[in-house]
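Following up on my earlier thread - several people asked me to post the actual chain instead of describing it. Fair enough. Here it is, all 70 residues.
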Amino acid sequence: MSARGIEFLQKWVEQNVSPYAKSDPALAAKLAEQATADAIKAGIHPGEISEEVGSMLTTMIELLDHRGNE
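Reply from S.P.:
Thanks for posting it. Predicted structure:
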């Protein structure tokens, strides 16, 4: 498990995903792609994140679904 990877993702979500974002597969795909690219730029291999949360796309879909139900 990579604490560094999960910490990156948590901070990234706080900074890049609106708390008012609604469930949208296209938005989830865009967010997953951008989070992965930003992780690589930060020197974090995407595997460090996926070993904790699984698929980045699935994670973003679940995040947006959860926010849409609040």
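The radius of gyration is 11 Å. That should answer part of your original question.
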